[in-house]
Amino acid sequence: MSTLPQSGRGTVELSIAPRAASDDDEQPFADSSGNGGGVGPTGRAWRHIPEPSLLNGHGPAKILAVCNQKGGVGKTTSTINLGAALTEFGRRVLLVDFDPQGALSVGLGIPAHQLDRTIYNVLIERSVGIHDVVIRTCVEDMDLLPSNIDLSAAEVQLVTEVGREHTLVRTLRPIIDEYDYILVDCQPSLGLLTVNALTAADGVLIPLECEFFSLRGVALLIDTIEKVKDRLNPKLDITGILATMFDPRTLHSREVMARVVEAFGETVFDTVINRTVRFPETTVAGEPITTWAPRSAGAKAYRQLAREVIAR
Ligand SMILES: Nc1ncnc2c1ncn2[C@@H]1O[C@H](COP(=O)(O)OP(=O)(O)O)[C@@H](O)[C@H]1O
Ligand SMILES: [Mg+2]
């Protein structure tokens, strides 16, 4: 995706869980073949998505910032599950927890609050290198740069740094050739940490909840993206807008979906993530839905998203 939607257009009003005995959902996931044809949940026909190519080697990574200053829209869930789905297509993935809440780390079963070294130390202390902090996850080929509450201090400490907006991209440089995708899970704000993520990124993935007020604030987000593109990172583009928490049974969800497509057109992924209790369950389980319930509609949807992301 190369064009940013005009900012004005975004202002439209509007204990461990037991593993399920069977993870097959009753409703089959609509046309996950990605071969086009048929009307998808966005109300448009599915576009053709080519089969992901096989890779001979890895890197340099494409950096994607998963960003929306609204909380609870599915940023962290999408980062974990898109990352895990990308590994199924042979991609090596690094997830960056860039939210002091540490939900990404916790969602992968990592007790981030107990870690002595996190992304905070790499950002702030010259003596700590990124390889000292990256850890493996339960998913093969998916690593994590964890964070915890320490990161909240970085926002303040970085303000006086020279080149403060480029701190994350400098931090990631030594590791970029080892991965195909680096996904940065942003905090729900447009502050300095998020600007750092946008400055490091090749693309932005915007999860958007299918709720009435979801489009509020998107204009401000797009405005921020355009400013970063203009002043700090000319290569930045919106990779796509991902509709999340969609309930196909309600008229409300379908109406919001129609407004989102009207406002953002082709930028909206054909893949839509339905609202299902399976996602909160995976957080408790500390693993992605692709391994927790591999045949569920949610797992299939994130695999479909991975194909779209690879194709863009
Ligand atoms: N598609 C979905 N359906 C139902 N619940 C979801 C879905 N995606 C995420 N959730 C849940 O909603 C909450 C917020 O999601 P999260 O990914 O943490 O959002 P964010 O990172 O944007 O704050 C979490 O409890 C998560 O388990
Ligand atoms: Mg989050």
From TrEMBL:
InterPro entries in the record, alphabetically? Answer: AAA_dom (IPR025669), DNA_Partitioning_ATPase (IPR050678), P-loop_NTPase (IPR027417)
Against SUPFAM superfamilies, the record matches this protein to: P-loop containing nucleoside triphosphate hydrolases
Task: Tell me the superkingdom of the source.
Answer: Bacteria
Annotated spans, Disordered: 1-53
Domain (AAA): residue spans on this chain: 61-238
Q: What does this protein do?
A: May play a role in septum formation.
Which family is this sequence assigned to? Belongs to the ParA family.
Checking PANTHER family in the record gives: COBYRINIC ACID AC-DIAMIDE SYNTHASE, P-LOOP CONTAINING NUCLEOSIDE TRIPHOSPHATE HYDROLASE
Protein name, per record: Chromosome partitioning protein
Q: Which organism is it from?
A: Actinokineospora alba
